[in-house]
Specification:
The complex is a heterodimer. Chain A is mainly beta. Chain A has no helices and 11 strands. The chains are: A mainly beta, B mainly beta.
Amino acid sequence: GENVEQHPSTLSVQEGDSAVIKCTYSDSASNYFPWYKQELGKRPQLIIDIRSNVGEKKDQRIAVTLNKTAKHFSLHITETQPEDSAVYFCGAGGFKTIFGAGTRLFVKA
Amino acid sequence: NAGVTQTPKFQVLKTGQSMTLQCAQDMNHEYMSWYRQDPGMGLRLIHYSVGAGITDQGEVPNGYNVSRSTTEDFPLRLLSAAPSQTSVYFCASSYSGGENEKLFFGSGTQLSVL
């Protein structure tokens, strides 16, 4: 079955800096890769996703890149703000998404 | 639309007790799934369903049962609760077909097994 690994587990950045979270997946048949943000005590919510026929997707300060050959995808957050502080999960798959273990992002004001 | 509704929000059980976590969605989604969230381990898939009458196992199905008699409801049953099942449980649904496979999560159930 699918296995998703996510790094780092914790990331601390200064406000205004960029943050990068990296994930790898094992199943070459996977074709949908979402990223979810979870604030403390809240439910996970989708922030961006990418399909395997696309190499990069951007939405304002958030971008995701995908390298199908290497089975690797990354989340990039530019100009970080304190409200970006949360746990971020990468995943592979749609209705039966397999998630990475999560990255706790701290943005210091 | 209420989206995905989970009940109860909190539950404390004794070892060996059974209970059902309820999940309902009003978005006419075909796909529904259950996840458990433990510190440092992310969200792990327990069971999922691709439609009424069809269910399958996820990553960590042992100790849990599911059924899907209607499109709207997808209850999760703990047969004989164990302390290892202490976790936060999330139900999710998603639209079938098209480019958008986004998961809509419920607000979660915090379960403690003593």
